[in-house]
Amino acid sequence: MSISSSRMPRPADTAGLRVDALHNRNRILEAAREAFATLGPGVPMAAIARRAGVGVATLYRRFPTRESLITEVFADQMEACVSVVDDALADPDPWHGFRTVIEKVCAMQATDRGFTAAFLTAFPDAVDYERERVRAERGFAELTRRAKATGRLRADFEQADLALLLMANGGIVAGSTEDALTASRRLVAYLLQSFQADHLDRDVPLPPAPPFGLRHMPGLPPACSAG
Predict the structure, then answer these.
(1) Is residue 109 a contact partner of residue 219, using CB atoms and an 8 Å limit?
(2) What's the CA gap between 170 and 51, in Å, rounded?
(3) Alpha carbon distance 126, 74 (integer Å)
(4) What does the pLDDT look like over 135-177, one tens digit per residue?
(5) Using CA atoms, how far apart are residues 211 and 76, in angstroms rounded to an integer?
(6) The Cα angle at residue 17 between residues 13 and 18, in degrees rounded to 5
(7) From the UniProt annotation, which stretches of this protein bind DNA (predicted)?
(8) Which of 2-6, 58-62, 103-107, 114-118 has the lowest mean pLDDT?
(9) pLDDT at 17
(10) DSSP states of 24-74 as a string?
(11) Can you tell me the distance from the alpha carbon of 23 to that of 121, in angstroms, rounded to the nearest whole number?
(12) Backbone φ and ψ of 210, nearest 5°
């Protein structure tokens, strides 16, 4: 699920742009990728403009809203995430597919703090992005249903448990990307073991699930947390 940070601009994005305008646009996208990956999507737009070496007015001319910048920056990651879910749905072993999605999404989160927040945020005006996000969520829900039907995934697993997992994984603090990935893999392995039905102590039920879903996770930028 590795994504190159140097995504080629889509033709529709750049049609009619002068060479200097296209250069500024690419610099903004690269600066935003770096800022979102390390600081999350709440980083001020002015800070992104400074990283890109352009004026704030230039940034807003290319990307009128934070949402338009976020959805463009993470378009390829979203496509990759949807592809992971689609591949898992095609896996003849639903439990293996379920595990694979969890492992790959958490690995992405460990290396790019911004994408998980962007994925969990609804952007009603970004039609293509929103359609792909909803498709990924529905695909994971179907994968969860299938994994439960096999008897491998505990029947009391809920969508809120995915949010809890991502909260825990997002709390990892490490000195390097490699250390973050190492810690994430171990944490995810522990949690996946607890999700297995054969580890279930039927005499000790889980406490109630918390009253929130994926987009109730903390750390989303205020302008993007609706929906």
Answers:
(1) no
(2) 24
(3) 12
(4) 999 999 999 999 999 999 999 999 889 888 988 898 888 888 8
(5) 31
(6) 150
(7) 44-63
(8) 2-6
(9) 55
(10) HHHHHHHHHHHHHHHH-TTS-HHHHHHHHTS-HHHHHHH-SSHHHHHHHHT
(11) 29
(12) -70, 155
How do the domains of the chain map onto residue ranges? 18-64, 75-201+208-224
Which residues fall within 8 angstroms of residue 83, CB to CB, at 6 or more apart? none
Prediction pTM value: 0.74
* Phi, then psi, of 46 in degrees rounded to 5: -60, -35
CATH of 18-64, picked from 3.30.420.40, 3.40.190.10, 3.40.630.30, 1.10.10.60, is 1.10.10.60
d(CA 181, CA 108): 9
Q: Give, for 76, the enclosing helix (H) or strand (E).
A: helix 75-90
The terminus-to-terminus CA distance of the chain in angstroms comes to: 27
Q: Identity (one letter) of the amino acid at 222? A: P
pLDDT tens, residue by residue, 30-84? 999 889 887 878 899 999 999 999 999 999 999 998 889 988 998 888 888 899 9
Neighbour-count burial for 68-107, b at 16+ CB within 10 Å, e otherwise: bbbbbbbbbbbebbbebbeebeebeebbebbbbbbbbbbb
Q: Is the pLDDT of residue 220 over 60?
A: no
Strand partners, 216: none
Which amino acid, 127?
V
